[in-house]
Amino acid sequence: MHKQIYISILSIIGVCQLGVSQEKDKNDIGTETVTVTKAYTPTVSDAFKIKSMPNLNDSIVLQKKKINYNIFSVPVASTFTPAKGKATEVQKAKPEKLYNSYLALGLGNYNNAMLDFYTSRAFNRDERLDIGLNHFSSRGDIDGTVLDNDFYNTKLDASYSKKDRDVSWGTNIGLQHQIYNWYGIPEGAFPDAVVAGIDSKQNYYNAELGANVKVNDALFKGADLLLRRFWDVTDSGENRFKFQPVFEFPLTDQSLTISGNFDYVGGAFKNADVNNSNNTGDINYGHFQVGVSPSLLIVSDDVRINLGANIVYGMDTENSESNFYIYPAVTASYRVLDENVIAYGGIKGDLKQNSFYDFVGDNPFVSPTLTITPTDRQYDAYIGLKGMLLPSLSYNFKGSYTAENRKPLFKLNPSNDFRNDEKGYYYGNSFEVFYDDIKTLGIFGELNLDINRNFSLGINAEIYDYDTETDNPAWNLPNMTGSLFMDYQIDEHWYMGANIFYVGEREDLSSQVVQNVQPSQYPSTIITLDGYFDANAHMGYRFNEQFSVFLKLSNIANNDYQRWANYPVQGFQALAGFKYKFDF
């Protein structure tokens, strides 16, 4: 009953409400405009933080049980007594007493004699004078030769140096006398009467003066100066002047280096070319070079790059000719794997100043009738790898390609029966300088083993391939070279060493002068010189810090080979002597 009453009341209220709503819709008052005079700026009230932790009244939470424990110690008998430690002592090498002078003398077969003297005097901690004297000679006969083949080489050097805080400088002088013989005449090639009248002895003389200066903390870093006079017994003479200053300009993290070069060589030969039937007229030459070489060095952790160029102005003062040359000078290296693998490469070029002095140093049997001209080395490009295979084993492999214009080659002078010069170098027994444009491909490899400072072993080899402009062979250039060397300090007293080198085949040309005929049309024959090995060894014994004895063995295999055409070398040679150190 009550339920029905509740339902009826709710129904009446609902009907009344619906009526009120309809009434409002009928009396709508319309829209109004509201103007907001202040922007809405809501704020957030601080949260209320409970400052006390509620107490938990949970029967499930377990209480930690208090544990009481005691330690029961039992003594243990022990007889171990630790030994006192002692630091290992480093064995110090006994300091070697230094002497300011030494003298070495030696004698051997073929009447070989050797003298080596050196002394160094310190006036104070900044000034020093050094003097050296070297001599080596031989007066023995070589089998198969009909002319004298003795030689003689004596050289005296003296230098003075002074070091200051900012500037160091020095000067030096050198004197040298050499005797050689043009003995390259095969046995039976000429009648005995002709051979008896040949004066084959040649004398070379050299006098030079040098100076150098080095400057710290300045744009001008230093300079080198050389003055040289070189002449022979046939009245040939040559003068050389060379000055090379160096400047360095810092650029942030790098440095710019500029090297200068002033180089003059000039001289005269009083005898005409051996290709001429008559010894009339002389040969004069003069070449002056002015060069500048800027280079920028860039160094990072693993990369080292040197960017540069070589700019040269060359003048032929005798013929009033000049040329301008620009060469690359770029090198780079990259550590691929620390010290184990280092890649490197570069491309360089220069105008090489040739001289009578340098040619005699390479081949003392040249005739005093040479043509002297510089070599235009257009570029020498190379790329290689070097590093360590093992902690004591290093390697170096390189490939190169070189292009050179006017490269000097040594070639036999023709035999000239029409000449009657004072010295006998026109019997096909001397060498001329033949210039050719050559491109050379080379492959080089080297291994070095350094087990410790007392033992070292190394081997290297290089293969060459030549392409000449004249289609002639590259006269007297080998197709392969190689060497093996070893040094061993056996103990405190004994030491020894050895080296073996190999030179491959070379080619030369034997010809005969014919009057009114061009040299290229002379009757000629190509000579092929066999490759050869030469083994050498030395050993010695030190009695004390001052006195020792030594033995040097050369051409141990007693090979009868020719370094130059028709010039056999001495066979097995033994040279014994002593060395004495002292204060002078």
Compile the SSE list and pairings.
Elements: H1 2-26, E1 101-108, E2 112-122, E3 127-138, E4 151-163, E5 167-181, H2 192-196, E6 201-215, E7 220-232, E8 237-251, E9 254-269, E10 283-299, E11 303-316, E12 321-337, E13 341-352, H3 356-362, E14 375-390, E15 393-412, E16 431-452, E17 455-468, E18 480-489, E19 494-503, E20 506-511, E21 524-529, E22 532-542, E23 547-554, E24 562-564, E25 567-568, E26 573-582
Antiparallel strand pairs: 1-2, 1-26, 2-3, 3-4, 4-5, 5-6, 6-7, 7-8, 8-9, 9-10, 10-11, 11-12, 12-13, 13-14, 14-15, 15-16, 16-17, 17-18, 18-19, 19-22, 20-21, 22-23, 23-26, 24-25
Q: What is the average of the pLDDT values? A: 88
Order of helices and strands: HEEEEEHEEEEEEEEHEEEEEEEEEEEEE
Question: Share of helix among residues?
Answer: under 10%
Task: Please tell me how large the radius of gyration is.
Answer: 45 Å
Number of helices: 3
Instruction: Outline the biggest β-sheet.
Output: 22 strands, antiparallel, barrel
* Low-pLDDT residue intervals, each spanning 5 or more residues: 15-26
Instruction: Report how far apart the termini are.
Output: 148 Å
Would you summarize the structure shown here?
6% of the residues lie in helices and 54% in strands. The chain is mainly β and 584 residues long.
